[in-house]
Input
Amino acid sequence: MTPKLPVSASSARMVELSRDEALKLLGTVQLGRVAFSDQALPAIRPVNHVVEEGDIIVRTHGGSALLVRALQSEVVAYEADEIDPVTRTGWSVVVTGTATRVVDPAALTRYERLLVPWVATEMGHVVRIRPEIVNGYRLVAVARS
Output
């Protein structure tokens, strides 16, 4: 049996972010995770994104479960973070909102230029997540005396 290492007291505190600050931070990273229901079970997929006018935009392929959710305008969650495990500082943002398929040809062309897929597969569909609930927290270092 491996002995457990002692856990030191945390050197950070959690600070709630405003909606605007949370969405701004979300726009500083490229990768997040989208959570949705697939066959009545929770599903989470890593995806790259852009934030535009407060909406989260992702590209997906034709057979994706996320696209099916978007065709039905269902509620999904989106999470991204940037946390340093050494300093225990950073931030995390979770957005809950409705996913819809983008069908406007000009918008599709624009998002194809802005959002390059990370995987080598056809990604001809675009999904917009319009945030209804935005929760964000920053882990801030606590000054030691």
About this structure: The chain is about 15% helix and 50% strand. The chain has one domain: 18-141. The longest strand covers residues 125-141. The two ends are 37 Å apart (CA to CA).
